[in-house]
Amino acid sequence: MQSRKTPYINFINSTEGGIGFPGISNLPLKEVKDWFLKKTYPIEEMLHSSLLSMRIQDKKTQKEALSKLKELQKSLNRCSKHYRGTLKHLKALYKENKSGKLEELRTEFLIEGMEKISHEIGYQYLLKRYHQVVDISKLKNKFLNRQLSIDAPKTLSQEISLVDMISRFREYRYNCDELRTTLKHTLEQIEVDPW
To answer: Contact, 32 vs 12, CB < 8 A?
Structure first.
């Protein structure tokens, strides 16, 4: 369906069993992905060419820009370390739950950890957007998980929650590590071909 205000935009509902919208086509997310998401973007090359096109002439500004990129790299490293630690903790809880030893699933450590990294520049300027995308994609499972957990035994509902959290943090870590790699290559390229 096209909006009257934006006739050049087609809307597609791909919530897969979620909310229906009158006049908007319903297509499975996989079909939408296969049909529309055909183009990949060479982020690394785009970032490097953007930096090269700027060609900062002032040495002081070059030094400051390089310093900020390195600061961003360190911040992403800290975020990645946090994700790895959180995943390790979640996997330990999962094993504890599988063995029947987990009394209650307490997730305060997730909130505290997210509060901690929310101050990182890597999170504020890059990862926060990835989190939003991952979280939106996981929302469709949340309703189903809640319905299951109402009627399910405690260990099963905890397992559903843990699997969801592990999946979410794996995606967070993956996105963070992709950004770290891109930034690392960009910094290496700047060393080879300075501003």
So the answer is: yes
Residue 132 in domain: yes
d(CA 106, CA 75) in angstroms, rounded, equals 27
- Report yes or no on 142 lying in a domain: yes
The tokens 């390089």 sit on which residue?
66
The letter for the amino acid at 63 is K
Q: What is the DSSP letter of 115?
A: H
Distance between CA atoms of residues 82 and 164, nearest Å: 18
Question: Is residue 52 in some structural domain?
Answer: no
pLDDT digits (tens, 9 = 90+) for 118-167: 899 999 888 887 777 666 555 545 555 555 555 556 666 777 778 878 88
Domain residue limits at 121: 58-192
Residue 88 Cα to chain centre, angstroms: 18
Write out the H or E segment, with its range, that includes residue 168: helix 154-192
Residues 6+ apart with CB under 8 A from 53: none
Read off the DSSP letter of residue 126.
I
In a domain, 8, yes or no: no
